[in-house]
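Just curious: can you write a single protein's sequence together with how it folds?
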Amino acid sequence: KMEEIKQEQVSVLTEVTKTLKGSQASQAFRQVNAIIRHARVPLLRLEHRSSSVTLDVVVGNSLALRNSDLLRVYSEVDVRFAKLGFVVKHWASSSGINDASHGTFSSYALLNMLIFYLQNTSPPVLPRLQQLSTPAHPKVENLVGPWDTYYLSDVEAAKQTLVPANTATAAELLIGFFDYYASFDFNRVLTIRTGMTQHRGQSSLLKHARAPLAIQDPFDLSHNLTAVVGAKTFETIKHAIVKERTRLGITQMHSPSVENVFPGVTLKRVRGNKPPNYRKSFTSTPKRVKPDNRQLGNPSAPAPAP
C-alpha cells in the first residue's frame, strides 16, 4: 500500500511540474531536478530565481506541517536560533554535506542538531517544547497518524521557562556548536523531543538505529533523520565538523569569517561549553594552533542536561 501512495504522490507532483512550466510562476521559480522518487516522501525541489532560495514540494505529508510549525515556535522563542540555523546550513552546503538525496544531511536534520545543542547549553538557550505544558496550555495529545505531535506552542510561556537567560552572543554559540559536536558521542541517539541522548537499544521504535548517525524525528519516533548517511559519508561529516571547529579556534578576533556574519562580536567563553583551544590565537599576529587531539565520539564529551 505504501508503494501505491508513493505512486499517487509522484503523479500529483508530475502534474505540478507540468502546470508550473505553462504558467507565469515559471518566471519566478525553476525546477532544480527531476522528482526525487527515492526520498521517504517523494518531493519536487524548486528554486526561487531571484533569491536562489530552494524549497521542497511534497504531497500528503501532514507531519511535515507539524515539523515546520515546531521550528517556527523555536525560532520565535529565541531569534539566535534562526540566525544560527542560516549559518550552519550555509556551512553544511559549502562543505557539500547538506543534501539528503546524496546521502548527507537534510536541512531538517541539521536544525535538529542545532536545537539539541541549544537545549543543552548552560543555561539553555531553547526549552524542550514537547515536554512543557502550563495550566493555560495543558498537554493534550495531538495525533497525526499514530504519532503524538504535541508541543507547547505558546511562545511567551516557553520563554518564561528559560530562567536564568543565556546571554551568549550568536557568534559565541556558533563556536560552541562546533565544539560540542567535535567531541559528541555519536554512538548515542540524539532527539530534541526529550533534549537527551539515548542508547541505541533504548530507542526500540527507531528504524535504522544502527546507522552511523542517529537523529530521531521529534514526532515520528520510527524515523532516523540521518538513515541515509553511510559510514564513509559519516567520516566526511565528522572531518568537516572538526575542521570548522579548528578554523574558528585559530581565527583572529574580528576576522571576516566571523565578523561578517555577526558584526561587532567578540569571541569569549560560552558559558556551559568548553571553548575551542584558542591558546594565543587572538593576538595581533595569530599563530597556527594545532587541532585538538580529542576524537569524535569521546565519551567524555559534555553530557546532555537531565
